[in-house]
Amino acid sequence: MPHPIMFSDDDPYLLRVREVALALPDTTEVVAHGRPTFRCGKMFGNYGGSVKGSQDRHDQSLLFIPDTSEREALLADSRFYLPAYLGAYGWLGILLDDDTDWIEVSELLDASYRQIAPKKSIAKLESR
């Protein structure tokens, strides 16, 4: 039984996330578990999630793999949360709203991408 779709293609925050994520070399979007995911071979971004240990859904958020050196500082910021399922693997979520700093989102996605992307894709990114 497939997962229900938990996003709308006309969601303005999803449109912005797509713009940022799909600009990275060799990135694809795949719907998995009812949500858009962004991949370069492996997944580096997931649109929407829920808080670990609760039923709180954050449909307008972005899950990403933070730099390990920044993880604790990010978690101290109320915009970030520990997501269900992926949080156990080091992922975090950031809430998206009208005050979102899209430069920060771009930097978070870039850092996440660099942790999973193959060397050839990172070389493409750096040659820009």
Automatic annotation (TrEMBL):
Organism whose genome encodes this protein: Gordonia sesuvii
Taxonomy, superkingdom: Bacteria
Protein name: MmcQ/YjbR family DNA-binding protein
GO molecular function: DNA binding
Family annotation (InterPro entries): YjbR-like_sf (IPR038056), YjbR/MT2646/Rv2570-like (IPR058532)
Keywords from the UniProt entry: DNA-binding
The keyword DNA-binding is assigned to this record: yes
